[in-house]
Amino acid sequence: MKGFVIFLFQISCFWSFSQEKLFSVEGSFQGKNLFVSNPPQSDGFGFCVSKVVVNGEILPASIQSANFEIDFSLFKIQKGEKVFVVLTHADGCEPQFINPEVLLPKSTFVCVSLKANKDGVINWQTKNENGSLDFIIEQFRWGRWVEVGQVKGEGSSTINNYTFQLTPHSGTNKVRISQKDNSGDKHSSQETSFQSAVPKVKMSPAKVTDYLYFKSNGMSTKTKFEVYDAFGNLLKLGFGEKVDCQNLVNGVYFVNFDNTTEKFIKINE
What does the domain layout of the chain look like in residue ranges? Predict the structure, then answer.
C-alpha cells in the first residue's frame, strides 16, 4: 500500500511539472526595469507566473499580482550587462512582458575618429557603445546619403576599432557612419571626405533601344546605378557596366551613376 501511495505521488508531481511552461526574453540592461502582465490561472486560483529567474537567480520579490516589476537593482546588474529573464508559468494562461523594448540596445556611440584613404578604405574609432548595433556606412552621392554597407558593432563602452572597404566614385567622396536603434532615429557621426583616383564615368547612348553603357577613358567600367522614370519611381538598381533597358516602355528616364545624374530616352528601333 505504501508503494502504491508513493507511485501516485510521483505521478502527481510529474503531472504538475508538465503543466508548467517557460517564457523568456533577453537583451541588455539599459537602466530601466521590466514589467510583467500576470493574468489569473485558467482555474481562477492564483496568478499565472510561479517563478521569475534573472541570469540564473530567482527574483526575491512578490509576483502574486496582476502586474509586477522585475527590479534589476536586486541583482546588482550594471548598465549594458546582458540580461536573460525566464518566467515559469502555469498552462492555460499567458503572461506578457509589457515593455520588452527596454532591453534593446540604444545608439549611444561617440565617434572618436573617422578616416578614409583614396582607395575607399574607411577606419573609425568609437567609444560609449551600449549594446551591439550595426554600423551603417553611408556615402554621399546623387544629393543624398546612400547606404553602402554594414559592420556589426562591438557594443562595449571602451575604444572600438572598425574598418570597411567601399567602392569610391570619381572626384570627392564624402562618407559617414550611422546607427539606428529601436526608436527608429538615426544617430550619425561627423562626415569625412577623400579624393579618389577613379576616373569619371560616362554614359551612352542618350537614346536607348536595348542597353545603356558605362565607360571610363573609353573602356567599359562598372559603377553603381539607379534608374528612375519621369515620376521619380525607382525601376532598376545595381552595380555593373551596362543596364538592360529592353523592358522599359518608350519615354524619358533618369539614371544615377558614378557621382552624377543624367537623362536618357528609351525608343524603339
Answer: 2-103, 110-195, 202-266
